[in-house]
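S1.2 Input.
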Amino acid sequence: MNWAVTTYDSAFGYVSAHGAPLVDLLDPQPGERVIDLGCGAGTFSAEIAERGADVLGIDGSLDMVAQATAHYPGLSFAVGDAHNFTTSESFDAVASNAALHWMTRDPDAVIASVHAALRPGGRFVAEMGGAGNCAELIAAMQTAWRVFGLGEPELPWYFPSPAEYTNRLEEGGFTVRLLEYADRPTRMTEGPNGAADWVRTYAASAMADVPPELVEPLLGRINDLAAPALRRESGWVADYVRLRFAAVRKPDGKSPLDVL
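S1.3 Output.
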């Protein structure tokens, strides 16, 4: 699976996009004002700040914002809901790394909030899970839930197709300049117990509904089901599919054709 549409202009033309760090695609300039949306513990915010930009990290988790503030006391962080955050002045760019797929309540509201935070011509640059992301892991979860009579697990992610998210961006007042969609198999280096550890970490909300006596047998079955596709001699691999894009806010009062 590898699908990409690229249109280069002065904002993004220098990038050989595939494989480039997201901060390179963003290309923050000294003095620019940038929002890191879904900033987590602040690592991506710090990378942006190293380029000389003024960064505001926003995250819905009070604990994450506290960690970010402790790790990077020289940067600004705030608790905010990506679906309805507001800013008192316009920003040059909004960036998001591996966070948009957690914002499931209303993706169009997230895009609208980003649009409102940007100046006309401002950049929206992000990477998120795309359609098919973790398909083998999710299939193992769903099968294991059924085996133990638990029905379907409630999945906490939103993984759109390239066409779907492009349409959302265009309808939300953006012009898409670059979009990539590609497989990115990723070693599970943080969890020695493979798929089970991945589910514990990233599907904790679904696990919260599992009766305590079924947790370990359920996770063991998930490992058994996922192993043929995801376990290698060198270790476990997550079947990630990434959607990366760079878009600009359309000039106020202009139709989409005016910015072609």
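S1.4 Remarks. The chain has one domain: 2-251.
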